[in-house]
């Protein structure tokens, strides 16, 4: 858990850290209201620079309206987590860069934080740790009551030995942070199930939506992606496109462009609604809101990352994380002291207040 | 320390923590439903727990230095 808290700390500011540490090609400055470039043109420009590659996803970057992100790879048979991101100017369709993120500080922190470089088993292991953390927090609430019966809220016994002071820090910090720790802990656990949730959606709803295409041969021709996105925009005038999954990628069938739309309010912008476009005819064949289990995953992400309230919230998130580290540290210390002495912390406190040798030993 | 022995009920023990928990919950939800002012309200609500923690610990330290 300490590892998770420590690696999570820089991840709160990953955008800022990346900007600071890594040069990026800047998109051209354009006056406000400049129309966006053609998607087909952007794809052509990227494939000209990366011949032999295929586009898996085309993404409208949430934090940078001036750039498109394209997720590309050698073929569709590869693990999509090895895809490479390419940035394209959103107004001129000019190729910007394809940064190799795998050597970055934030990438290493992210891997340590999500799966410890051990893939799905690593994720599920950390998810289990998260569940144990939530249980520990709840058991902390339960033992808080007897421990505080004779003490006022917020008591910090500065004049007493370290074990008493640290118990007070542990109790006070633990109880005021309880909701935050439970929410961040549990939403983190949900995030570890992301791969499984996506698989369930793929074999459930997505398979249903593309059922009539199951035995069709791969498409002979491809219509324009711009036209496909435009068709979906017309069908969902109140939504914005978030990304397009290309035929053959994990979020689509062989025969569809899957255009994922998102809402325009802060809450609905986190939720996605896929619309399928037949790549041969350009017709919209189906669109459905994502099922509750994917919606839960999508809504749990901001609550875990703390990236949904601007810079002030990020700073508060950092402070809360640091105090959580203090709760874990003092908790570990109290547990080890108790194991060594084979008596309860309460008993040691009682003894220390009678025995002058224990009084303020540090 | 207090001279009279203190014995609190569950309600007394959890009164302040419950209020802090409510503020944190509002803070967590606030920034999710709105932007702008909501983001600030959220940050302020979520800043309450660390501020209480800091005040309680620092106040005792200051009191001790004052006594010396």
Description:
The complex is a heterodimer of chains A (362) and B (68). Chain A has 362 residues and is an alpha+beta fold. Chain A has 2 domains: 2-108 and 194-305, no CATH class; 118-191 and 309-358, no CATH class. Chain A is 51% helix and 13% strand. Chain A has 12 helices and 8 strands. Chain A has helices at residues 2-12, 14-21, 39-49, 105-114, 119-148, 162-176, 178-192, 194-209, 225-235, 292-305, 310-341, 345-354, and strands spanning 54-60, 67-73, 84-89, 95-97, 240-245, 256-262, 272-278, 284-287. Chain A has an 8-stranded antiparallel beta sheet with strand order 4-3-2-1-5-6-7-8. In chain A, helix 1 packs antiparallel against helix 4 (105-114), helix 1 (2-12) packs antiparallel against helix 11 and helix 5 runs antiparallel to helix 7 (178-192). Chain B has one domain. Helices cover 81% and strands 0% of the residues of chain B. Chain B has 2 helices and no strands. Chain B has helices spanning 10-33, 37-67. Chain B is flat and about 50 Å long. The two termini of chain B are 17 Å apart. The mean pLDDT of chain B is 84. The interface between A and B is large, with 41 and 43 residues.
